[in-house]
Amino acid sequence: MTTLPTGHSGRLLHLDLGAGRSHVEEPTAQEWRRYPGGGLLGVRRLLTDTAAGLDPFAPASVLMLMSGVVAGHRAVGLPTFTAVGKSPLTGGVGEARGRGPFGAALKASGCDGVLVTGRAAAPCYVVIEGGAPRLQDAADLWGLETHCATDVLKARHGDDAAVAVIGPAGENLVRYAGIVTEFTHAAARMGLGAVMGAKNLKAVVVIPAAMPAAHDDATLQRLTAHYRDHIGANPLTAAQASATGFGGWFLDPGLTGYAGVGNFQTAAMPSVPAEAAQLLADRRRDGSGACPGCPNDCITSYDNGIDPRLGGLDEENLAAFVLGCGVTDVGDALDLVARCHAVGLDPVSFAAVWAYLTEVDRAERPPAAMIDDVTARHGDDWFLGEGVRLLAEARGRPEPAMHVKGVEFCRYDPRTSAGQALAYAVSPLGPRYEIVEHDLDFDPDDGPAHGLAQMRALGVDEWADMTHLDAARVARTAVLLDLWSGLDALGVCLFAGPPMRLLTQARVAEIVAAVTGWLTSDHEIMLWGRRRWNLMRLYNIREGIGAEQDTLPERFFTEPVDSGRHAGAVLDRDAFSDALAQYYALAGWDAEGVPTSITLASLGLQWADPRPTRPRVSPTSPPPTPSSVTPCAIT
Question: Where in this chain does the record put each Aldehyde ferredoxin oxidoreductase N-terminal domain (predicted)?
Fold first, then answer.
C-alpha cells in the first residue's frame, strides 16, 4: 500500500540537458524519512549517482536545487532551498543555502528537487510548470547580469515566476560564482554558479502552483505567530530585524579582536564613520528582502547605486568589504555588494582574493574594478577567478592564502573562538560562518544573557571562555555541529532556530510534525544532522580530501591577535591537534577521520561504508519506467 506524502510532493525531477530528456522519480517513504531533503539528500545522491574523481565542470556532474519535506513552506524559518553539487573550489561536496521567494516557489512547483546533469549544446534555461520542465533558448540572456536577465524572464513568464539565475561570473566559470534568486537572495558560496554555467544553463524559472498541504497548518501558523510576537524579546532576532539589520553587526566596537581585518593581519577595526548606522537605517527597504511567511526580515535590502533590488544583505556581505577590503564608506560597500549580486560573485570569496593580492603585491586595486576583472577573466587576471588557493599556488605564495580545503575564510577569527576554529577545520564545507553557533554567545563576558537557556537542553550548563580549547569545548562543539547540520538537512533557517534564537529544538520538531504528520523529536533532528555530516565526510574522503586537510592557515598558529580584549590570543598547535583527535573520537571516526563501521550502522548508512571488507548494500531507488522519461527539447 502506497502512503501519499504530506507537506511535500514526494517527487524529484531529473533533467539531462545533453540528451534533452527528463524523468520524475518518486523516492520511497523510507528514503524521505532517512534523507528528508537539502544537503542530506543531495550528498546522498552525489555518493550514489556520480563517479569518483569527476570534474565539477564535466557534463556528468550533477547540480541540484533541493527543497525537502518541510523547506519552502510559508512559515517561520522555512522558505529556503539548497543548491548542492561538487564544488569547483574544493573538489569535494559543495552546498549553498538560499532563502526568499524561490524556496517557496520550488516547494509549490510539483517537485521537491531538481537534479540537472549533462551540458546543453547552446545556452538554455529551464521552465518548471506543473512539475514538468521545458527547455528554452537563452542566447539572448547569455552575458546579461542577473537583474537584467531576471527582468527579461519575468516579463516573459509572469511576475509570479521565481527565477534562479547566474551572471557573467558563472558563465565564465569563476570558481566562486554563485546562484542569485529573485534579485537579492544568493546561494553564493562554493562556486555552484560556475557548475551551472558549465552546463550552459543560465536560469531555472519556476512557475508555482499549489503548495502541498501541511498536515496541521493551524499548528504551523501558531508557531509562526508566537515567533512574530516575541521577536523583540530575543536580542539576536531583534538585531536581525533592527534598522542596521543582519549585515551591520561589525558596527559594534566591542567586537575588536573577534573579527579578522584585511587578510587577518590585524584585528583593529577600520574607522567607519559615526553616521554609518544612520546611513543603513535611512537606506533600509522594509520588507523588500523578506522570506514569504517568515516574520523575521533577516535578509533586509538596502538602497544602492546599482539597483535597489540587488541590495540584500546576508550576515557576511557588508563585512566582507568593510573588514576584508577596508571600504569604510558604507554606501560604497553597499554598492559593491550589489555589484557582486549583479555579476553573480560570492562577496566573501572575492574579499579574500582581494585581501590576499593586497598583502602579497603590497599595492591595492580598487575592489570595484577588480570585480569586473574577476568576472571577465581577462588576460593576466584570468587566475583571479580560480579562488585564493589556486591563485596562491600559481603565484608561489601559498602561506598568506586564508582558506580551508580551498574555501575562503569568513570574517570571524578562529584565534579568539576555539570551537569555531575546530569546526572550520573539520567541516566538509570549509570555514563557513554558519557551520556552528559562535563561541561568543556562550562567553561569560560577552555572551548574551539568554546564552545558556537552550544550551542546557543540549547538556551544557556553564559559561566558557571563548578562547579556551579543551575537551569540554570539543564536546559542546560536536553537539552544536550536529544540531545545525540537522537544521540544514531539513532546510530550517539557522537564523530562526536553536540554540540562540526563538525556535527551540522542541519547536523545530513541532514544525516538522505539523508539516509532515510524522511522530518525531529533537533527537531525530540530531540524527539527520549526523547523517548529513558523515555522508559529506565520506564524499570528501572519496574525492581525496582527508584528515590532512583538517587544519587552518599557518597565520592562526603563529601570529597573535594584535588588539582588542583578546590581544595576544593565538592557537596552540598541540592543543589543536589534541582537540582534533578528541573530536574524531566523539564523532565516531577513526584516527584518520574516517567514520567507523559502527558509526555508519547506527545511522543506517552501512551502504556507504568505504571499507572493502564490509558488505555494500545499494541504496539506489528503482530506475524510472520508460513511460516516465520525457523529451525536453530546447525551444
Answer: 8-210
497-533 pLDDT per residue, tens: 999 999 999 999 999 999 999 999 999 999 999 999 9
- Reported residue count of the chain is 635
CB 318 within 8 A of CB 250: yes
Cell of 605: 548508512
Nine-digit cell string for 77: 524559518
Query: If you write DSSP's letter for every residue of 535-564 in order, what string do you get?
Result: HHHHHHHHTT--GGG----THHHHS---SS
List the end-to-end C-alpha distance of the chain, in Å, as a whole number: 40
3-state secondary structure 84-95: EEECCCCCCEEE
* Residue 586 CB contacts under 8 Å (≥ 6 apart), including other chains: 474, 475, 478
Catalogue the long-range contacts made by 462-467 (C-beta closer than 8 Å, 24 or more residues apart): 464/439, 466/416, 466/417, 466/418, 466/419, 466/439, 466/440, 466/442, 467/415, 467/416, 467/417, 467/418, 467/566, 467/569
CB contact at 8 A, 104 and 74: yes
Q: Which residues contact 215 (CB under 8 A, 6 or more apart)?
A: 6, 7, 513, 514, 515, 516, 517
pLDDT value at residue 124: 98
Question: Nearest Cα to 536, choosing from 14, 85, 71?
Answer: 85
Rounded to whole angstroms, the Cα distance separating 126 from 131 reads: 12
Q: How far apart are CA 391 and CA 73, in angstroms?
A: 41
Domains (range + CATH), the chain:
12-215 (3.60.9.10)
Report the C-alpha dihedral over residues 264, 376, 318, 293, rounded to 10 degrees: -130
Q: Cis omega (within 30 of 0) on the bond before 623?
A: no
CB distance 223 to 292 below 8 Å: no
**pLDDT tens, residue by residue, 59-96:** 999 999 999 999 999 999 999 999 999 999 999 999 99
Place of cell 543560465: 202
Beta bridge partners of 135: 126, 634
Task: Work out the pLDDT band at 252, boundaries 50, 70, 90.
Answer: confident
**Which residues are CB-contacts of 537 (< 8 A; sequence separation ≥ 6)?**
428, 589, 593, 594, 595
Give residue for cell 560597500.
Answer: 333
Euclidean distance between CA atoms 301 and 502, whole angstroms: 23
The CA radius of gyration of the chain, in Å to the nearest whole number, is: 23
Cell 558509526 locates to: 599
What does the alpha-carbon distance between residue 514 and residue 511 come to, in Å, rounded to a whole number?
A: 5
Which residues on adjacent β-strands are paired with residue 63? 116
Helices marked H in 209-316 — which ranges? 217-229, 235-240, 276-283
- Collect all residues with Cβ–Cβ distance below 8 Å to 83 and sequence separation of at least 6: 63, 64, 65, 66, 94, 95, 96, 97, 98, 179, 187, 192
pLDDT tens figures, 588-623: 999 999 999 999 999 999 999 998 754 444 454 443
Query: Alpha-carbon distance 85 to 50, whole Å?
Result: 10
